[in-house]
Design a protein that fits this description.
By secondary structure, the protein is of the alpha/beta class. It has helices at 36-51, 73-77, 83-103, 119-126, 153-161, 163-172, 178-184, 196-208, 212-223, 230-244, 248-259; strands spanning 5-6, 12-17, 20-25, 57-62, 108-112, 116-117, 129-133, 137-139, 176-177, 189-191.
Length: 268
């Protein structure tokens, strides 16, 4: 059994055991939110999983109470006028990670241990299978910050939930319970919190004993049904977000978040 190790930027821990790689988001005091360091570590984790023939299944989960509360708004607000470049830099790493996880042979399981928001929901949607703790809930906060979506959300969510359901979920900021997320197709099944990691471990072990190359071929065939290439879509998300964060509404959204008040958007 390999020991759990912290990846170079300290935001993710990595462990490999019996053919299963465990990728744990490790910023519990910040609700496992995504900053540049976590984005880089997620990319490193994806490279390790994809390059190691001993890895035959992957589990992504969070440390502490949250799975992932999306982007680190305080980090983003601190970038000031450099925000568009910061967004492009962070999404370069996280989108490369998402592409790698989506294309690799080993099946990827999200073990959703707690609330998931924004980019955290996108990580769940990117995974091949998702087991949710009953206490988890799901929401997309990008529009409430005046932001468009990255992390593959506009690619994966319509394919899982249907286009109209995804529109409603994304634009209204509604929160889905674990059971509602399962009914909408976002997660595979819901289990009691205390059973989550055992259920994820059992599923991962079953998949790790399977025909890994066949699994990879099936994954890529299923996603090839889209008219748009995943990587092209991710680039479009990154470019769009970098443009949107230049707007007054985006600045207002971040300021409102920092000041814990409702945003006053002007549509520009």
């Amino acid at each position: 059994m390999s020991k759990r190790s912290t990846l170079p930027n300290g935001a993710i821990t990595f462990e490999k055991h019996d053919g299963v790689a465990w990728v744990r988001l490790a910023r519990p005091e910040q609700a496992n939110t995504m900053n540049l360091e976590l984005s880089k570590d997620l990319h490193e984790a994806a490279l390790r999983c994809g390059d190691d023939p001993e890895v035959r299944a992957v589990v992504i989960t969070g440390e502490g109470r949250f799975f992932c509360a999306g982007g680190d708004a305080r980090y983003l607000a601190g970038e000031g006028d450099a925000l568009p470049r910061a967004v492009r830099e962070a999404t370069t790493y996280i989108h490369a990670a998402i592409s790698r996880f989506a294309r690799m042979d080993p099946p990827v399981i999200a073990a959703v241990n707690g609330p998931a928001a924004g980019g955290g929901v996108c990580l769940v949607a990117m995974s091949d299978l998702a087991i949710s703790a009953r206490s988890a809930h799901y929401s997309i906060a990008f529009p409430q910050l005046g932001f468009s979506i990255d992390c593959g959300g506009t690619f994966f969510l319509p394919r899982l939930m249907g286009e109209r359901r995804a529109f409603e979920f994304i634009l209204t900021g509604q929160r889905l319970s674990a059971d509602e997320a399962a009914a909408a197709g976002l997660v595979t099944r819901v289990v009691e919190d205390a059973k989550l990691l055992a259920e994820a471990s059992e599923l991962a072990a079953k998949l790790a004993s399977g025909a890994t190359r066949a699994f990879g071929g099936i994954k890529r065939l299923l996603r090839a049904s889209s008219a748009e290439n995943l990587e092209a879509h991710l680039e479009n998300e990154s470019r769009t977000l970098a443009e949107v964060v230049k707007t007054r509404d985006a600045r207002e959204g971040l300021a409102a978040f920092a000041e814990k008040r409702a945003a006053r958007f002007e549509g520009c």
